[in-house]
Design goal:
Length: about 280
Amino acid sequence: MNSTSANDDPIVKFNNVALGYGDFTVLQDIDLEVHKGQVVAMMGGSGSGKTTLLRAATGQISAQRGTIRVFGSDMAQARGEQLRELRQRMGVLFQQGALFTDLNVFENVAFPLREHTQVSESQVVERVLDKLDAVGLRAAAHLKISEISGGMARRVALARAIVLEPELILYDEPFAGLDPISLGITAQLIRNLTDRLHCASVLITHDVAESFAIADQVYVVGQGKLIASGTPRSLSDSQDAYVRQFLDGAPDGPIAFHYPATPAFQAWLDQHGKRS
């Protein structure tokens, strides 16, 4: 696990941030930091706003309020070439992998190198095989995507996400749909690759056990705000009702089953001639 020093500038910093879509605010009063060498888990239930945090960090949406800084740059001011350069310093592992089914394993991982660099073909081969080796799939380089399992596909996507050796890697539900063995392998890969590349890794996830086993810092969001933050150990000892319900998977507690009503929903109801 990694510890940060006081003068270690954060790679990602949210300061009093509110996020949402249109007039609807999903999260507010968000303060968080991600430092080099850390694995940070952003956790919460379905619909709690976890993926909204990822979209904000990559500049896909802007903050309604507050400041988001990535690599020291204000994301609200990042446009065009500057935003493209910031994103090139990131790697993203999408929830479904987003592999190109018409390319084999090798070419999927090679794609970012061919798209964003001018390295020679021999360097492409060397770098791709190195990253495939890091995820245990060097000997699968020649296989079609249709010839590999779901767990292997997730590892290929991980190799592609790190092939440019990014300073920040964002994982959107990296454990979703994996069998227990693949899940454990993927979790340990994230920890090992973070240590090897000395990058920052952010997990958007609701998998408690796997995330707590590898994370340095955990942020829990719910009810439209940041509920808790701390190390896995400190959160495991928390007596906060929301944290306990989430960590224990309890059916009863402050986490509501029903999605909250919003002005947009009421307007939709009114359009359909119904009132709640």
